Amino acid sequence: MKFLISLHINPAVLDALTEEEKAAIGDGHGKFIEELKRSGELILTQALVDPSQAAVVSVRNGQPVVTDGPFLESKEYLGGFYLIDCENKERAIELATQIPDTRIEGLGVEVRQVMFADGQLEA
Amino acid sequence: MTAPAIEGLLRELTPQVLGALVRRHGQFEGCEDAVQEAVLAATVQWPAEGVPDNPRGWLMTVASRRLIDQMRSDHARRERESATVTEVVPEDIPDTDDTFVVLFLCCHPTLTAASQIALTLRAVGGLTTAEIARAFLVPEATMGARISRAKQRIKAAGSSFSLPVGAEREERLRVVLHVLYLIFNEGYTASSGSELHRADLAHEAIRLTRMVHAQLPEDGEVTGLLALMLLTDARREARTTAAGGLVPLDEQDRTKWDRGLIDEGMELVKASLAGPALGPYQLQAAIAATHADAATAEETNWPQVHALYLILERIAPNPMVTLNRAIALAETEGPSAGLALLSTLDGDERMAGHHRLLSVRAHLLEKTGDMAGAYEHYRRAAKATASIAEQRYLESRAGRLSSSG
After folding, report:
1. In this structure, what DSSP letter does residue B120 have?
2. Of the candidates A1, A40, A113, which has its C-beta nearest B145's C-beta?
3. Is the pLDDT reported for residue B288 higher than 90?
4. Which terminal CB of chain B, N or C, has fewer other CB atoms within 10 Å?
């Protein structure tokens, strides 16, 4: 079963972390990725640039309108994701608990099953 | 030889060659890699240069060389001297068919179901890692890692290359049948995504189950599982619309059912029910046979279906069985009786919010005339499912109610 584990970050929370804490998050993700690769459960992971760099695109009367993002007026933004293929939802949740973000108040880790997929898998 | 014929030959030979290699050298892990490489080489060479006179010997020779190369480089890596690996290119390939032993090893109980499936498809089914990865819509590297992890676990468990004996053998056979059942299901109904059929996996499951059946023709559950697969696969054409939508059993065009598969399945059901013991696959096959026996949905022998589910519920209690029995009960005693039975599942954690419970309840509410309740449950079921085909079907049922009411 495929699941998307999305990482909801809060830039203010991240900024308040010490250098050591930030490095620990980076290491934690590195270890997590290695473990997922070894177990054969990782499909893909990507991290996104800061939400301030987002462009919001709409088309009105056939004309594209592009404004500075982010789209959502929120404290938390999508920071990145893991796309995994594992045995069941319990395993997906078990894996998610290994993500360092889960240990930090103000950061969100969400698990949802994938319903449809298409495209090149050899990403 | 045509490409499909070569493929068929390779799939048949893969576990035999693997078995012979493991008997000679031990180390299942390395042998399995070597055989996979030999199969890949054959896939490239045979269609271009023709199939060798002794295809099994060819595969054995290539795989042996790969294995020896691998052993040598392992030795070199460990900087061991006096690596006395002699090149044994076998002349005498044992005639014993080890396919069965390989299959039992791949279904080792320390592995997760996903790993058992992947390893079985590669080592017994002769599929390449790329093919398996495609079937499960994951990257090849992901599937490769899963397979090699599975082999490491088998090695760590210290399994010997032989059939388990006594009760353990019986237990392992149940795991094997479950793995084959899961492969079939994965091919028949994709657990998620828009593709309802992945015929190759279903056919592969049937092929492997036929093989087990040929080895154990007296085992009622093996016969039952094969019958269940054939009777289910017979409905393949009728099960989806041209646009890929789902057609439920009672709305299927039964003239599209494959009579050949049904006849074969029916014969097997009869044979399996004549045996001394009765297991869950035999009962499910008997239920499928009862449906196959009805020329129209109205002619279905529901009392018999209900009775079979009742026995199944006794020997293998499971909320999904109770759910199916509720459908049969609704047909024999009315939708209210079915709903009453469904309510016994409400406290079951395994079923809480399950889309099947919601959709069956919606269906029975519709039959009692509670259109508002049915509408709400169809919508909730549509939200709960991870299958797009099912979601569309449930949405359309809900839509039909809202437009008529």
Report:
1. I
2. A40
3. yes
4. C
pLDDT at B397 (0 to 100): 94
Residues on chain A touching B133 (C-beta within 8 angstroms): 121
Domain hosting A42: range is: 2-48+75-113
A82 to chain B, closest Cα gap in Å:
13
- Per-residue pLDDT reduced to its tens digit, B299-333: 999 999 999 999 999 999 999 999 999 999 999 99
Class of domain B322-405: mainly alpha
List pLDDT tens digits, range B195-205: 544 668 899 99
Taking CB atoms and an 8 Å limit, are B146 and A41 in contact across chains?
A: yes
Banded pLDDT at B194 (limits 50, 70, 90): very low
Contacts of residue B115 in chain A, CB cutoff 8 Å? 40
Q: State which H helix or E strand residue B34 sits in.
A: helix B28-49
Kindly report the number of other CB atoms within 10 A of residue B316's CB atom.
Answer: 13
pLDDT band at B87 (very low <50, low <70, confident <90, very high): very low
Do the domain assignments include residue A119? Answer: no
Give the one of A1, A42, A116 whose C-beta lies nearest to B191's C-beta.
A1
DSSP tag of A52: G
Domain total of chain A: 1
Residue A66 lies in a domain: no
Residue type, A100: P
Choice between B175 and B88, residue whose per-residue pLDDT is larger: B175
Which tops the pLDDT comparison, B388 or B399? B399
Interface of A with B (CB under 8 A): 1-2, 37-44, 85-87, 113-117, 121-123
Q: Which of A40, A87, A115 sits opposite B386 (nearest CB)?
A: A115
Quote the pTM value. Answer: 0.87
Q: In whole angstroms, what separates CA B113 from the centre of its chain?
A: 11
Candidates A40, A87, A116; nearest CB to B388: A116
* Spatial separation of the C-alpha atoms in residues A48 and A50, rounded to whole Å: 7
- Residue B389, pLDDT score: 84
Q: Specify the CATH number for the domain of residue A14.
A: 3.30.70.1060
* Least confident segment among B30-39, B69-78, B135-144, B314-323: B69-78
> Within 10 A of B81 (CB to CB), how many other CB atoms are there?
6
DSSP for B15-27, please give it.
Answer: HHHHHHHHHHH--
- The three state secondary structure string of B383-405 is HHCCEHHHHHHHHHHHHHHHHHC
Q: At residue B146, what are phi and psi to the nearest 5 degrees?
A: -65, -40
- In chain B, whose CA is at the least distance from the CA of A120? B139
pLDDT at B9 over 70: yes
β-bridge partners, A65? A58
**What pLDDT does residue B192 have?**
45
Q: Is residue A56 part of a domain?
A: no
User: What is the residue extent of each domain of chain B?
Assistant: 3-77, 322-405
- Give CA angle at B76 (B70, B78), nearest 5°: 105
Cβ–Cβ below 8 Å for B142 and A85: yes
Q: Is there a contact between B224 and B177 (Cβ–Cβ < 8 Å)?
A: no
Look over chain B and give the mean of its residue pLDDT values, rounded to a whole number. Answer: 89
